[in-house]
User: Which sequence fits this backbone?
């Protein structure tokens, strides 16, 4: 027993090193599985508050651009308002129970912190569970897909960015509906990769890529970007490079998408799996 | 004269804030991410007990992690670096010994000594950090390039800060 103590005292430096490394690596591994972002909920309310303060001051710098973008989007929304169309009773029949048919709902939030230069990028938003934000809600901007909510505290939420090596989303080519898996390769914050598109179909530079709507997180048809390069690599699939339509470096306001029928869809799909 | 403990704690907070609020928002061409907070470990006094070295490495690493949403990543890299610091100090020992009452600064041991010392430790830290961050070997050379460029940039910032802040210190 005494010799054991002596060994511990002599090698306390090495032993402590191993202990601390084990602690941090296990933190890292648990976190990498990005659904388990619970750890953040505790610390987020502190770091979120600091980021919020700083953002309040820096937001002025991009005020002009933000205003322009918001007014542009307002105009777009006004264009699709019902009253700008001539209503035709044959097609627009009254539906009093609107709740039942609403599939997705939107809510806006402000980005108070984000990174684009890491391999695993995240965003922090200024809304949290107090206003109904839940994990696994989709996040989009007027220009396209941003990411998915992973952690929620009372007033803040973290979002795993499209620019994250762990991020996968199902996407398709708009013109012919062939779908594949979209991911980021960690190199350029303006480009992502689309895999699993079979090589017999025709892919051209400039083709639009949109969300497929299979994941129950994003509705179908949200723009992601345009094809900038495609090559057949190895087997029977294309490796397609996509120019993102979102500029992650100038994000200020984003929209969160909740799927009202997500639970029903997932329950049904799991029923099929068993 | 402020006592060395509170001075080091103060330095730690300044470096964390500088890293999180300024440097984390800097990206040059997608390859260079400077991590200057390791300066804290570099500047700890020679007499720091070795267990305290590891604990402070863990403390500053985990604080950076909390802000960057990467629990464990910076902590593991900084602990690794703190672990190697005594060996690197031994490696670059001038003549006989480090004089008592002196600090690891340019002022005491000269520019070349400090450059070698920080270059080696920052390189080790960045190598560990970037490979843990990528966590796969497929981008080996791409990651290597990022390590090398970021190391140069971080060391540049560290040396620069030494000239700015410790210029007048006796």
Assistant:
């Amino acid at each position: 027993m005494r010799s054991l103590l002596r060994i511990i005292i002599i090698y306390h430096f090495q032993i402590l090193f191993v202990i601390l490394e084990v602690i941090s690596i296990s933190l890292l591994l648990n976190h990498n599985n990005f659904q388990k972002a619970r750890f953040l909920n505790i610390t987020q309310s502190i770091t979120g508050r600091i980021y919020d303060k700083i953002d309040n001051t820096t937001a002025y710098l991009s005020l002009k651009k933000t205003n322009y973008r918001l007014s542009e989007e307002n105009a777009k929304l006004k264009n699709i308002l019902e009253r700008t169309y001539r209503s035709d009773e044959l097609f627009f029949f009254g539906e009093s129970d609107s709740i039942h048919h609403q599939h997705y709902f939107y809510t806006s939030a402000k980005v108070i912190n984000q990174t684009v230069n890491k391999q695993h990028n995240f965003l922090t938003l200024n809304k949290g569970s107090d206003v109904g934000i839940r994990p696994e809600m989709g996040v989009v901007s007027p220009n396209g897909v941003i990411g998915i909510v992973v952690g929620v505290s009372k007033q803040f939420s973290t979002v795993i960015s499209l620019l994250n090596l762990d991020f996968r989303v199902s996407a398709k080519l708009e013109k012919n509906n062939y779908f594949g898996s979209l991911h980021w390769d960690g190199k350029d914050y303006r480009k992502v990769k689309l895999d699993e598109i079979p090589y017999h179909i025709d892919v051209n530079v400039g083709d639009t890529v949109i969300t497929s709507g299979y994941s129950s997180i994003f509705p179908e048809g949200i723009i992601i970007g345009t094809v900038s390069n495609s090559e057949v690599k190895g087997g029977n699939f294309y490796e397609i490079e996509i120019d993102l339509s979102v500029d992650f470096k100038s994000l200020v306001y984003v929209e969160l998408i909740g799927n009202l029928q997500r639970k029903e869809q997932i329950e049904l799909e799991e029923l099929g799996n068993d | 004269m402020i006592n060395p403990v509170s001075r080091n704690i103060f330095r730690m907070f300044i470096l964390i804030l500088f890293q999180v609020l300024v440097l984390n928002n800097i990206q040059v061409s997608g390859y260079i991410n400077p991590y200057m907070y390791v300066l804290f470990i570099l500047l700890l006094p020679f007499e720091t007990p070795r267990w305290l070295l590891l604990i402070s490495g863990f403390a500053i690493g985990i604080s950076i992690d909390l802000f960057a949403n990467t629990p464990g990543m910076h902590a593991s890299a900084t602990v690794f670096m703190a672990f190697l610091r005594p060996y690197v100090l031994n490696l670059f020992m001038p003549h006989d010994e480090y004089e008592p009452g002196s600090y690891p600064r340019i002022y005491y041991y000269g520019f070349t000594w400090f450059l070698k010392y920080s270059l080696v430790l920052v390189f080790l830290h960045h190598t560990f950090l970037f490979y843990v961050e990528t966590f796969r070997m497929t981008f080996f050379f791409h990651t290597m390039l990022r390590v090398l460029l970021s190391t140069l940039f971080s060391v540049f910032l560290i040396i620069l800060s030494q000239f700015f802040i410790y210029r007048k210190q006796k």
Observations:
- Helices of chain B lie at 4-21, 39-43, 50-68, 73-91, 106-109, 111-134, 140-165.
- Residues 140-165 of chain B form the longest helix (26 residues).
- Chain B is about 70% helix and 0% strand.
- Chain B has a mean pLDDT of 84.
